[in-house]
Structure formats: structure tokens, C-alpha cells
User: Fold this.
Amino acid sequence: MESWSGIEVPRLPGAGQPLYLYDSARRAKHQSQPRGRAGLYVCGITPYDATHLGHAATMITFDLINRLWRDAGHDVVYVQNVTDVDDPLLERAARDNEDWVVLAMRETALFREDMEALRILPPEHYVGAVESIPAIVTRVQELVDRGIAYRLEDGTGDVYFDISQAPDFGYESNLSRDQMLIFSAERGGDPERPGKRDPLDPLLWRGIRPGEPSWPGGSLGPGRPGWHIECAVIALTLIGSTIEVQGGGNDLIFPHHECSAAHAEVLTGAKPFASHYVHAGMIGLHGEKMSKSRGNLVFVSRMRADHVDPMAVRLALIADHYRADRQWTDDVLKAAEQRLARWRAAASAPAGPSGALLLSGVRAALTDDLDTPRALLLIDEWADAALAGTGDDTVAPGLLAETTDALLGVRL
Ligand code: 5CA
Ligand code: ZN
Assistant:
């Protein structure tokens, strides 16, 4: 699948610093130490509705990681998926009497435009579930052959993963079994389904059903892939058996990232699948998580149409820490617009306090688990001083603009 257009990122003077990230599995911050190319896999959209501010916030979070690694001199291999066939997409298309392929294409195209407007660096591989089906079939067949996956004996042709064969199951989310059962039922699992070896066993391959799209599955029979195996196989195929960061919103901690890690680890034998499982907090509106199923959405495209500056949207979404669940309000946007205007004025000032100190402070804040509130405060203080005529560093205003562009993705 086509990615979106790239942009030039200014190279900053001096050396970037090592990045510390909070890992949901270890429940602690630890240093990311990519060996070779730094592998970043981000769980992308299920394209049945337009990109909303929650998606944008999550994509911006991982864009910051990409930018900080590049600043530290790492070569990054960034892969993102599109779940371009799954139940919610088929259900929405049926509800609206629309061709599901056309719906997915339209929303994916809009997502690309939104990502470009937000200055998010494109993934090297932007990959759909549908185009990955042959690779997924091979891996599911391998799991069946090894006795790690089993076919349900109810004539549906559905194939499940046997979690008892993944001895570390649960290490990524650190949840109790009771909590896992609740999340499984809420988030696309089927713990009540009869005939499974364990209620938590996730679906790997769904046998053909009347009225549903299907693809050849070789010995599996015709059908379509389960959700978690999609991300595991795309990451394994395009990055390798282990990755530095597995990313997404915190709604994916369980079952999605737990199951995709279990699939990948059983397939390759390499553990842990990801050195860091990184999860962005949920953006909410009027007290509830912003979600397509609830319909309480603020679309990035609607804001663009209303001439809201995408750079202000970006600043608004990083004003608080990425891991915090946070509410979108008009005031959050207004504050970001004022901040952006002030930074732009400061970037045109004749001089200001030391630019080198500002850059090292911003690097230190961002490499400490993406502490954007601290980074933004440092820039605010520098801008206030420059606008008050303090400091004689004439290079600093230009360096401010390069720093916000390269590290925050905010072009002044
Ligand atoms: N296609 C799957 C991932 S493989 C999926 O979850 N799609 S999604 O369209 O529902 O979400 C796309 C990405 O945005 C995921 O990383 C998800 O965790 C994140 N996300 C969804 N809603 C929000 C929200 N309200 N706030 C922050 N991030 C969100
Ligand atoms: Zn995913």
C-alpha cells in the first residue's frame, strides 16, 4: 500500500541523546538501545471512519520517537499497518450500504492527507491486512502444523491460537486473568464461544461465511485473518523477529499487543518480541474516550476544512504527557494557538538567550519518556525572554525554529 509523502527534517547541531521510554511490560522506563536499524511498529487505523484527534495523538506520539531516534543518529525502520478488512469495517459498510473496499480506500486516503498536514514522517512500509494475507496464511499453517493452533470442530473452519503454548502469556499487559476475560469480551475477543480450549484463545483465521469476503487459505480453507496475527506477521516480515518498539493506544495493551507478542514469540522463539511496548493515552471528548463506535469524534479533516492550523493541533495534542488519558476541549486548542503565535514571534526576534542551552534542555526533556510538557515549558520560557529583549544569541531564534521542526514536528 502507498505511504504518504515525506518531508525534510532539519539536522540539528550536536548529538541527540539516548531515548528512555516507559515499557508497559516491565512497568518502568528503560533505555532504548537499537542495534542496527531501530524497528518501530505502530498499530494503524481500521479505516471505517475519518481520522479523529485520538488517532492523531497516537500517531504524533510515535512520530516523536521516530524523530528522537533520527536525532540520535539511528537509522529507523518504521512500519504501520492498516486493518483494511475486519468486522467493524464490514459492519459499517453494510449499515451504509456501501462497498467495504471503497469505504476503506476513501478513509485511508483521508488518513494519509491528515498525516501529511500534521507533518508526521511517513512509515517506510505502510501495509494493509489484505495484501499481507499470503504471509499470514503461511504462518497460521505453521502454527497448526506445530500443534499450537487448532481448528474448531463446529464446521466453521475457524482456527484459534492455543495460549497455553505461550508460557509467558500475560507478561505484556500484567493483567489478572479476570481482567483479561473482561477486556477480551469488550475488545473484539470471544471468551464465551463454545469449543475453545481456553476462553482467551484468540482467533487466527476465520472460515468463509456467506456474504463475507474471503481469500484462499491453502490447507486452512478459504477465509480471512484474525486481528492479532495480522500485526505480528507484518512486523516479523518487514522488521524482523524482534522490534524495538511496539506502539499504539492504551486500548491495545490487551488483548491486541499481548496476543501479537505471543504469536510472534512462538513463531520465532525470540523474546521479548518488543523491547518496549509503548502505549499512548486515550483522547476523550465530553468525558468519554473518543471512538468511532461511540461517535463522539472530532475529525482532523474537519478542522483542516475549518482552517485550524495543523501545527496548533499538534501542539495541543502534546501539551500534556502522551501516556495520560486526556480530554479535548476548545480551551486546549486556544492555548495551543496562542503558544504557537508566541513561538513564531520569538523565532523572528533578533536575538535571545542561549540556543544551545535551549536545544540541550529540549533534548533532555523529550528523551525522558517524551516529556513534552517540560519541553514546551522550556521553549515558552525562552520565547518570553527573547520577546522581552533578554539575551544576545543571534543564532538562537533560527535554532528555535529548527528545534521545534526537527524534534516536535512543529513548523513555525
Ligand atoms: N487497526 C487497529 C490496530 S491494529 C486499530 O486499533 N484501529 S483504530 O482505528 O481503532 O485505532 C488506530 C490507532 O489509534 C490505534 O493505535 C489505537 O490505539 C489509537 N486510538 C484509537 N482511539 C484513540 C483515542 N481516542 N485516543 C488515542 N488513541 C486512539
Ligand atoms: Zn495492531
Observations:
- The pocket of zinc ion (ligand 2) is lined by residues 43, 81, 231, 256 (CB under 6 Å).
- The CA atoms of residues 21 and 369 lie 4 Å apart.
- The chain has a mean pLDDT of 97.
- The chain is about 40% helix and 15% strand.
